[in-house]
Every structure is written in C-alpha cells, then in structure tokens.
Specification:
The chain is an alpha+beta fold. It folds into two domains: 127 residues, no CATH class; 92 residues, no CATH class. The protein is built from ten helices and eight strands. The strands form two sheets. A four-stranded antiparallel beta sheet has the order 1-2-3-4. It has a four-stranded antiparallel beta sheet with strand order 5-6-7-8. Strand 6 and strand 7 form a beta hairpin. Helix 1 packs across helix 2, helix 2 packs across helix 6 and helix 8 runs antiparallel to helix 10. The longest helix is centred in the last third of the chain and has 21 residues. The radius of gyration is 20 Å and the shape is globular. The termini are far apart. This is Lipoprotein. It comes from Plesiocystis pacifica SIR-1.
Amino acid sequence: MKILSTDISVPLVGLALIALGLSSGCAASAKRSPQGLREAYAAALRADDPDAAYALLAPEVQARTDIESFRERWARNGDRHHDTLEAIDDLDDDRQGAVITGTTTHEGGVVIHWAQTRAGFLVVDGLPGIPDTSTPTSAARALVAALRSISAVQLERVLATTLIERLGEDWNARADAIEAALTDPGAITYSGDNTRAMLRYGGGRLITFEQTPQGWRVSDLR
C-alpha cells in the first residue's frame, strides 16, 4: 500500500476554491488554512467582488478560465450568492473545521478514499466493486459505466424485444451525451449549500446529484 496524497476539504460552500487555494500558496497567511480560505471567499461574496474570488483560484485553474469569463459566470450566479453566505453562516460546530481525507493505491490500480472521523480514518469510497462517487463527475462516469453495462440478455426475461431495442438505443445515446457534457468544466453547477449538483447534457436534459454520507448519488434523471 502506498500513500498517494492527503487532501483537506471543508464541507458545503467553496470546496473547489479551498482545495485549489491551498495549492496556490495564497499570499495572506489567513488563507493558508481551509477555514481562512472559506472566510476569504465569503468576504468576496459579501463585497460582490469577483476579482477577489478569482485570486483564490490556483494558477492552473486560472489558466483554464480567464478573468472575464469568471466575471461573467459570477454575474450569472449572483442570485445564489445570498444562499451561499447563509450556508456559511449556518455551519454548526461539527462542520466549521476541515475534514482531513486521504487516498491510497493498491494492487491492480484500486484507489481507496478515506476520511478522518471521531472513530479514526474510515473508507468512504473506492472499495473493489464499488463505483467511485466521491464527486459529481465521478458519479456521472459511474452512471455512464452502468448504462453501458446493460445488455439485452439481462432484459430479455422482463421486456419485449421492441422495447429492449428502443431502450437500448436511448441508454447508449444518454451515455454518449453525458460523456460529452463532462468535457465542459462548467457543465456541473452546485446549489447554494453545496449539497446538490446539476449536470446539463444532451440539449436540455438534466441529472441531479445529492451529497450523502456514502458519496454523491443520482436523485433525478431527465
């Protein structure tokens, strides 16, 4: 067994900003902790200052998203900022601090994700045979794999042949459309409290994910 990496994340808002901000080495010492970065992001929201929020992004993220595009996205999501601030202010004591997570790799390329709890480190995702649902993106890829694994042989016992053919084509088309959507970094959006995520794909279709203790799960598929 080999330790690949150890990550620190904070539940609810600003997860991506926190993780990426840590790797960017922010100048202000207060931003060097997850809590400090969360407060810096909250301050940017309160001031309606997209430039301050952009400065919290890691250089590699800024390289993929220029400041003008970020400002436009910030303006589009303005109605969610109030909800995000409320979610930050409503964090209970158990969720104020960072959650320490780790990743290990094992024979055969199996990658297991861990999280520190009061009982010690526990596996939260990645056991052999269990799909990775640690993020909405990985959950979407697991859904694609499940759609592609459906075979006519499995369905012949319960569905008519014409229905199998029609559903098979629909499932394959959905899988293709979901995979295509995942190539767009902005395809997945989050709710204000960061407990739900939405992936738009295939010309108006929508997948809704919900965060659970066992990872992200598909709660609605249209």
